[in-house]
Structures are given as structure tokens and as C-alpha cells.
Write a structure and sequence with these properties.
The chain has 11 helices and 10 strands. The protein is an alpha/beta fold. The strands form 3 sheets. A 6-stranded mixed β-sheet has the order 7-6-5-8-9-10, sandwiched between helices. The chain has a two-stranded antiparallel sheet with strand order 1-2.
């Protein structure tokens, strides 16, 4: 039986879910939300949730303290009349609600109409799982098979002539006991890796990095809802690339020129050494302001993508963040060569308000 409190909690969660979905675009552009992230939950501030309450009507029906009163009758406590006082106006109440990341992923998928991902690759990694497959004569009491034990006791009593149909009592003895047995089976498990690459040259300011940080958080939340095992790697680059941890990726402050091929070379070596495409579903996300050092390096990037990276990955996504200092040329070169490629997704992110559209451009098509 479902208790009333459980119904109330379910109803409250539905209200919260509706509020989040209605304001999803606003939440996705707020960097503070990521700062509220715990291990598996996110703390979301939800203003103006109307909780059920009694409200008195205007009709006067008599009772204590009602009536028209007399002129000069004191109103309020200690004969003091009511009137405007400091702090007597209600404010906006903000309620902190903890939401599971899996729930956020479902809301994101529904709002952006993201498809459930069908893992690709010739084979997937496997994990060991115990499965009950047989019966044996010994084992712990927790695995005792009551039906099989009863049948063994009944057969023994029948064969020994001890069973009385008028008094059908079956008493198992130790020799009658039967227990479940198991064997270890390998169960397929889809594995994925996301490799994030970001330009940290002088033309990428803090606002551009914040946009990358927010978009990466939502991409990561969605893909984690699609795979049991998800690894994440981070690469930053200016004229040279290096692998960093998550905190460094989102907080690093560097300057200098830009050589995009350095990141593509590193991600290609990483895939060859650690993530066999036959075993892994691989997603590449690169964020830059579109400025690159010379046409020769751009041609090297295009060659790396065409001949090495794209054949190995499920998806290559390039997000170009608008910058006052970047040329914005790189996305034009990508469009010229890969605009119709099924594994390539391109997005121009002019500001925070376009994060949602960028994610849909990356993940909203059949993958």
C-alpha cells in the first residue's frame, strides 16, 4: 500500500521536474549549477514553488473577532494599529532541491529530443556476473531450494513406504536438502570514452572557457546516462598539447599561439594506445575560437581527421566559441570538407544562450 506521504513526495517531485524542464535553458547557462554538483546529485535553486495551503474566503460568516466594530477600536497587539513597518513585505523564497544527475539527464533528453544511443563497435567489453544455473547437495542456508528439498524428501518417503496419504507430513532430513549453484558468466557491457579538447591560447578568454565548462557538464551528464562505464580524458592546447585532469581543464589560464593539430595528434595517439575502437565507443569534443596557426597546420588537421580520427570514433564534435580575438576560420574549413559527414557535428556558439542549441546540434541526431 502506498502511504500518503509517498504520494505527496511523488507529487512534489513532479512539480520540481516541471519547474526544471520549464527553466532548463536558464539552468544550462548558469555556471553556479556545476558548483553545486555532488557525487551523484546537483543542488538546484527553485524559486516560487507554490505549496498547497488553506486560503480564507471574503464572506463574513460570524465568529470571534468579526463584525464591523466601533470607531476607535484598537487593532493589533497592545492597542497598536496595523500599518506598514520595516520588513513587513513578503520576499521571494528560494528552495534548494537535490536532483539526481540521472533525472537531469532524462529531463535533458526529453527537452532536446535526444535519441537513446545505440553503441557501436564490433564488440564490447564484458564484466563478470554470477548466475544461478543448477542444483547441488551442499551450500549455505540462504541458497536452499525449498521446492527441490521438498521433492527429494517426498521421493525418499514414497520409496521407503513412509508416506501416509491420510497424514501427508513430509519431513526433510539432511540428505534431502538441495541448494542453488551458480557459475560466472561474462555479460556484455558498453563502454565509452569522451575526449575533450580545448584551445587555451591567448584569444580564449574566461567567458569562452566558462561556456565550454557548462556545455561539457551537460554533454557528460547525458552520455553517462547512456553508458554503464564512461571514461573522460581532457586535453588542452595552444601551440603544444598536454593531457590534464578535469579541474585543470576548466581552470587553466594560459596564453600564446594556437596549433590545433597538436591536440588531434595527441588524441589519436591516446586512442591507439588505450582505446581500441573495436572495444570502445569514442566521442571527441573540441572547443576553440577558430583561430589556427597558418594554413599548413589546418591542412594537417583536416588530414588527421579524415584519415585517422573520424574512422575510429563514433562522433567528432567541434564547437566554435565566439571570441573578439579569434578569426573564426577553422569551422569554415571544416564545413567545406565535412559538412555532410555522418560522424561530424559542427556548432557555432555565439554566447551562453546558444549552449542548448549547440548540444542539440551535437547529440540531437541519430547516433
Amino acid at each position: 500500500m502506498v502511504r500518503k506521504i509517498e504520494k505527496d513526495e511523488t507529487r512534489f517531485r513532479q512539480i520540481v521536474r516541471g519547474k526544471i524542464r520549464k527553466e532548463l535553458r536558464r539552468y544550462m547557462t548558469q555556471g553556479e549549477l556545476i558548483g553545486r554538483k555532488g557525487r551523484d546529485v546537483v543542488s538546484i535553486p527553485l524559486p516560487s514553488i507554490e505549496l498547497p495551503r488553506f486560503k480564507y474566503g471574503q464572506q463574513q460568516t460570524g465568529g470571534v473577532g468579526q463584525g464591523e466594530g466601533e470607531l476607535g477600536t484598537p487593532l493589533g497587539r497592545d492597542g497598536q494599529p496595523f500599518g506598514p513597518q520595516a520588513g513587513d513585505q513578503p520576499g521571494d523564497h528560494v528552495l534548494e532541491v537535490e536532483v539526481q544527475l540521472s533525472e537531469l539527464a532524462r529531463i535533458l533528453g526529453e527537452a532536446l529530443e535526444l535519441p537513446n544511443i545505440q553503441p557501436k563497435g564490433k564488440r564490447s567489453l564484458s564484466t563478470d556476473k554470477d548466475r544461478y544455473t543448477g542444483i547441488r547437495r551442499s551450500g549455505p542456508e540462504s541458497l536452499r531450494h525449498f521446492k527441490r528439498t521438498y521433492k527429494e524428501a517426498l521421493k525418499r518417503q514414497l520409496s521407503a513406504g513412509l508416506y501416509d496419504p491420510k497424514n501427508p507430513i513430509v519431513m526433510p532430513i539432511n540428505e534431502d536438502r538441495r541448494f542453488r549453484s551458480w557459475k560466472v558468466q561474462q555479460m556484455p557491457e558498453s563502454n565509452a570514452v569522451i575526449i575533450y579538447m580545448m584551445d587555451v591560447s591567448g584569444s580564449m578568454g574566461q567567458e569562452q572557457k566558462d561556456i565550454v565548462r557548462m556545455e561539457s557538464f551537460w554533454i557528460d551528464t547525458w552520455l553517462r546516462s547512456q553508458y554503464k562505464s564512461l571514461e573522460t580524458r581532457y586535453i588542452v592546447h595552444d601551440v603544444a598539447a598536454k593531457e590534464v585532469d578535469e579541474h585543470t581543464f576548466f581552470h587553466i589560464r594560459e596564453s600564446g599561439g594556437t596549433k590545433i593539430s597538436s591536440a588531434y595528434d595527441m588524441s589519436n595517439r591516446m586512442i591507439d594506445q588505450l582505446f581500441d575502437p573495436q572495444d570502445w565507443n569514442i566521442y571527441l569534443f573540441h572547443f576553440s575560437d577558430g583561430d589556427n596557426w597558418g594554413g599548413e597546420d589546418t591542412r594537417h588537421c583536416l588530414s588527421l581527421l579524415k584519415d585517422a580520427l573520424i574512422p575510429k570514433v563514433n562522433l567528432f564534435c567541434y564547437g566554435q566559441v565566439k571570441s573578439a580575438y579569434g578569426s573564426g576560420q577553422f569551422i569554415k574549413d571544416l564545413k567545406e570538407h565535412f559538412s555532410d559527414h555522418e560522424k561530424v557535428r559542427l556548432s557555432e556558439i555565439m554566447g551562453r544562450d546558444e549552449i542548448v542549441d549547440s548540444i542539440k546540434a551535437f547529440l540531437g541526431k541519430a547516433l
